[in-house]
Specification:
The chain has 118 residues and is an all-beta fold. It is built from no helices and eleven strands.
């Protein structure tokens, strides 16, 4: 309960779509910023997208802008990452995390694997 839980990863062909789900019932206040990061083995962790729990202040990495959409469904304590037009270079483990500016705390899930094939 103290960690977000990601799901929805899997294998998709290049050009396909996936929707990732992050359930986080512990960090539901509007002050929390929800983030998606990704990391491929041997590479640095990469920022993907962010949104406040109240839906404000949406930002995306330049590489995914126009293809990915982050959104919230507060009734379900859930954050989504809709990923369209995926390319093989975006194969990675995708992580969901909650940040609280007032405390400086971050809470990250265990990740979900996304594999994009040619």
């Amino acid at each position: 309960q103290v960690q977000p839980v990601e799901s929805g990863g899997g294998s998709v062909q290049s050009g396909g779509s996936l929707r990732l789900t992050c359930v986080d019932s512990a960090h539901t206040a509007g002050e929390y910023r929800m983030n998606w990061h990704r990391q491929d083995p041997g590479k640095e962790r990469e920022f993907v997208a962010t949104i406040r729990r109240n839906g404000d202040s949406v930002k995306y990495a330049d590489s995914v802008k126009g293809r990915f959409t982050i959104s919230t469904d507060n009734a379900k304590n859930t954050v989504y990452l809709q990923m369209n037009s995926l390319i093989p270079e975006e194969t990675a483990v995708y992580y969901c995390g909650a940040d609280q500016a007032s405390s400086g705390n971050s809470f990250w899930g265990q990740g979900t694997q996304v594999t994009v094939s040619s």
